[in-house]
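call fold(seq) -> tokens
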Amino acid sequence: MVTGKPNLEVFAETLLHLAQAQDDILVVTGDSRGSGKLGPFGKALPDQIVEVGIAEQALVGISAGLASAGKKVFAVSPACFLTARALEQIKNDVAYSDNPVKLIGISAGVSYGALGSTHHSLHDLAVLQAIDNLDIVVPADNFEARESIQAAVSHPKPIYIRFGKKPMLHLHSADTKFEIGKSIPLRDGDDMVFLSIGEPTSRAVQASQLLAEAGISAGVISMHTLKPLDKMAVLAAARRAKAIITVEEHSVYGGLGSTVASLLMAQGVYVPFKAVAIPDEYTVTGSQDEIFAHYGITPEGLAATAQQVLQGVTVP
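ret:
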């Protein structure tokens, strides 16, 4: 697999290209022009960017007002602050009021690394899933990042899209089709299936390659849309595989793992299952790679977890 750019850079480049052809596309940002890679956007289209400073609640409220006037608004801010400080505005001004703002959470998950828990966004998927009328997309690579922004421009509902900072591996073939709400199979396999969302997906693909060398057929599905979840794909995978493992850069509560587990139980589909996520504890400090390694979100860690689950071992 070839390494590409950080999804955050692909987001900014794609948005600039789209906005140059559509002057009703606006960016509202809170002191994130640099961290959001929006410097070129501001220089090229100064009349299409609004800087509100470090004021996330105002950022979301202003974005909702512009969207209600017919603008296609991208509200850009670090995911940890956007979805915590401005949660009430997201709930009331955006979702409840049905203003189709495109909420862009940058430097998501543990991308901020050593800055620690104040800057980690391991809560965002959980809190936003609980809000009606808000879709959630977490791209796994540059292709999904680009396609999600292109789709978001005309998306009729409020939507939250989450990006990290690290260069991503290319996971998709040239003829891949992207649709919000439809997962994308990356590798076939019936012994077990990884259901993965966001940046850890490349680790799941690499883990499936390691498992193949051990004679285990491991499928991988990119669940880029958490809400609406591709329920048919999840159920089909669980009915054909001997085990299911979800992988995500989020708390073990309220993200992909707990959502999939709830669906399987509700449908009466019982299969060995493990959610690989950040446990309910003080998160270790370190780079994204170091944190992933600590919690087993690596090719080797995921392969080992898969083997244990298939052997009937209870994995803590």
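The mean pLDDT is 94.
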